[in-house]
From TrEMBL:
The keyword S-adenosyl-L-methionine applies. Residues 51-298 form the Radical SAM core domain. It comes from the Bacteria. It catalyses: 5-amino-5-(4-hydroxybenzyl)-6-(D-ribitylimino)-5,6-dihydrouracil + S-adenosyl-L-methionine = 7,8-didemethyl-8-hydroxy-5-deazariboflavin + 5'-deoxyadenosine + L-methionine + NH4(+) + H(+). InterPro entries: Aldolase_TIM, CofG_family, Elp3/MiaA/NifB-like_rSAM, F420, rSAM, rSAM_sf. It is an enzyme of class 4 (lyase). Its cofactor is [4Fe-4S] cluster. The gene is cofG. One of its GO terms (molecular function) is transferase activity, transferring alkyl or aryl (other than methyl) groups. It comes from Cohaesibacter celericrescens. Keywords: 4Fe-4S, Iron, Iron-sulfur, Lyase, Metal-binding, S-adenosyl-L-methionine. This is 7,8-didemethyl-8-hydroxy-5-deazariboflavin synthase. Its EC number is 4.3.1.32. Pathway: Cofactor biosynthesis; coenzyme F0 biosynthesis.
Length: 409
């Protein structure tokens, strides 16, 4: 952005952003209003004043997990009477409810590989005929595809090559929050201590594998878990570099840690609104413009302010199921959200779980089994029918932003 040297803002906050490659320290000290203005410019050019969401239902396939993140209230030990694996009937019941309410996505979110840590979890899986949770997940995705019109999106944490292979034909998109690149937080006393799936190297490997296999992928940062601002900037660069190799990152979520009474981090402070806004703006400035920036509307009463910091997406919102990960926070009514967005100067539009550019850019990112169904939902060639599902049709393609070499810098 060209900064107007005569503007009062420039007088208080000198040129951090006039630098071609701002450092984390530059981003940390820059005037927040200048950062937000620059982020808005990028957002407006790429996405306009359209803000999207995916109408979805949430299926917590299992709450057992081999990890024990200190911020997580979702996870249940297999000895806990509340520990569970959803039955196919339960999955279908949720899916059918969603279908009846016009949902187009079913988000499977689950604990990571509990069978590798707990005999009880292994036995519970064996009872329903499976050795690995991921195999059951793939079959449940297939069931949803067979019996309903919903597109499965899978958020199962780290994935090995063969897990991605079996999920790819039955999931329209997948995701995994990188969370952080801080190795410090895996040490004793840290939120990721003894969590094998939260070591940054494993998270980064999953991002890379998804790219190699051309899976449209959602990732993001969980902020306020003890990471430094510089570590957030480092994480954003790591995501962007991975995307520059493969073009598969469809969206990056900036999620604010929420305190709950029943977690180890019950007394940890939550990030402030300004902290969220600075991180969102910096994400918008660092990441390639075609990567959507998402922040949840239910984790802050002041979420509309995120629009001023450059977001263009609210993520999945459900008229049917609660947010099982942050169950104390209700979804906004979609009609109310649409109204408040309109008053703020933005149009709320529905989208699919897979972003439009992956439909336009050919078959590489859509598995052949899903091609016809997705095209049918989105309209032929991604444009004709259901125009509203292709929000951001003014988006530039990956090639336009990256050039044929595929590198953004
Ligand atoms: O309701 C939620 N949806 C979450 N989603 C769903 C997400 O908002 C939508 O499913 C995607 O935007 C796809 O449409 C995630 C998806 C991922 O792939 C990775 C992480 C998340 C995190 C959450 C979450 O905390 N709560
Ligand atoms: C599915 C995603 O939910 C996020 N998640 C887990 N626990 C919390 C919490 N207390 N507050 C906010 N987000 C959380 C993590 O980022 C995880 O990857
Ligand atoms: C409640 S978290 C759900 C997804 C997965 N266990 C992760 O942490 O990435
Ligand atoms: S956040 Fe995900 S990986 Fe961590 S304990 Fe909860 S379910 Fe497991």
């Amino acid at each position: 952005m060209q900064t107007d040297k005569t503007s009062p803002a420039f007088a208080v906050a000198p040129a951090a952003l006039a630098l071609s490659n701002p450092s984390a320290a530059d981003f940390a000290s820059a005037d927040l209003d200048i950062l937000k203005a620059q982020a808005r410019d990028i957002r407006d050019t790429q996405w306009g004043h359209v803000v999207t969401y995916s109408r979805k239902v949430f299926a917590p396939l299992t709450n057992m997990c081999r990890d024990t993140c200190s911020y997580c209230t979702f996870v249940k030990h297999p000895d806990d009477p509340a520990a569970n694996i959803m039955s196919p009937e339960q999955v279908l019941a949720i899916a059918k409810k969603g279908e009846a309410q016009g949902c187009k996505e079913l988000l499977f979110s689950l604990g990571e590989k509990p069978e590798l840590r707990y005999d009880k979890a292994k036995a519970a899986l064996a009872m329903i005929g499976y050795q690995r949770m991921t195999d059951y997940l793939a079959d449940m995705c297939a069931l949803v595809l067979k019996e309903t019109s919903l597109l499965p999106h899978v958020n199962a944490g780290t994935l090995a090559d063969d897990e991605i292979e079996i999920l790819r034909p039955v999931a329209a998109s997948m995701g995994m929050m990188l969370e952080t690149v801080s190795r410090r937080l895996t040490q004793k006393g840290g939120p990721h201590y003894a969590c094998p799936d939260k070591t940054p190297v494993q998270r980064l490997r999953t991002l890379e594998r998804a790219g190699q296999r051309k899976v449209p992928f959602t990732t993001g940062l969980l902020i306020g878990i003890g990471e430094t601002f510089a570590e957030r900037v480092e994480a954003l660069h790591a995501i962007n570099e991975c995307h520059s190799r493969h073009g598969h990152i469809q969206e990056v979520i900036i999620q604010n840690f929420q305190r709950k009474p029943d977690i180890v981090m019950a007394n940890a402070p939550e990030p402030s609104l300004d902290d969220m806004m600075r991180t969102i703006a910096v994400a918008r400035i660092i990441l390639a413009p075609e990567i959507s920036i998402q922040a949840p509307p239910n984790l802050s009463a002041r979420h509309l302010a995120y629009l001023d910091a450059g977001i263009n997406d609210w993520g999945g919102i459900s008229p049917v199921t609660i947010d099982f990960i942050n169950p104390q926070h209700e979804w906004p009514e979609i009609a109310n959200l649409a109204n408040s967005c309109r008053l703020a100067g933005y149009e709320l539009q529905e989208r699919l779980t897979i972003y439009p550019r992956y439909l336009r850019d050919g078959e590489a990112f859509v598995s052949p089994q899903l091609q016809a169904r997705i095209n049918n939902m989105a309209g032929s060639n991604g444009l004709a029918r259901n125009q509203h599902l292709l929000a951001g049709s003014q988006e530039r393609t990956i090639e336009q932003n990256f050039g044929s070499g595929g590198c953004h810098s």
